[in-house]
Design brief:
Length: 322
Amino acid sequence: MALPAINAALGFIRIDIDPVIHIGSVPVHWYGVMYALAFLAGFRFGVLPHVTRRGIDRGTAERALVWTIIFGLLGARLYYVVQQPNLGDYLHDPIRIIAVWEGGMAFFGAILAGLAAVTVFAWRNRISAWLMWDAAVIFAVIGQPIGRIGNVINGDILGARSDLPWATAYANPHAVLQSGFRLCTSANCVAYQPAAVYEALGTITIGLVLFALRRRGVRNGALAVAYIPLYAISQLILFQFRASEPALGLGLRQAQWTAIVILVVVAPIVYLVWRSGVDTGPAMADVAAPAEQPAAAEAPAGGAAKPAKRTRPPAAAGRRRR
């Protein structure tokens, strides 16, 4: 496996990595490996610390993760497929619709399907939907940049031709290049803007904003309320570099039109529902150790003291249904 190398003469990065690792007769796709690492990192370092500090046990968090991943993957793949100009090819060969190993996952689809799954899970388990939404967006901002490494190896998210020093050219014959892009050969080497890298950097920036908000102790739902418009804005900007996606009306791509709908319709509705206080759950600040129980009430003359009334720990508030 040849590692990426900078071509000093032409000023671009040449990538010659086979997207498939062959372990004996078993093919393992880099794309799938990066997704698995993304799920693991997002859950272990994002979701789990966030929810356990707020009264949700690990078992509940793991069940939520499974459902979110299943529906998130399905939503991401379906959203990608329906916006392809060769949609008919997918309909004639339906197995390709779920062939995620070929590359091609639209993150807007993952967001919509994943948040829907999280909402249903929270309702069924009588826990704060806003708390679970926050956990979901933390999962996204940690995991998505890792998953983009798979896109870089595949070559399936590219921008226009470029002579910038960080432009990428693909030399491996198994690179998953979309229509209109070509491999780098000794006779002809074309480099393209690394749109997948731009996506990763955009998500990292959003993540820094969300973690800064969490440090301020905002209440449940604030992270999700901030993430939705921030991600939509990032897609409006970054899809200008995505030459691998077809343009629709006014020269905008489907993801950009989706971003506009989210900014104009979805984000304001989510914000108003959140502001209304419906299902807010406990405060966003980490759940501290229960406060000391109040001392027994002073006994009346000649009588025994009454035991102080026990209070529920703060985490319990996040589990009640409103």
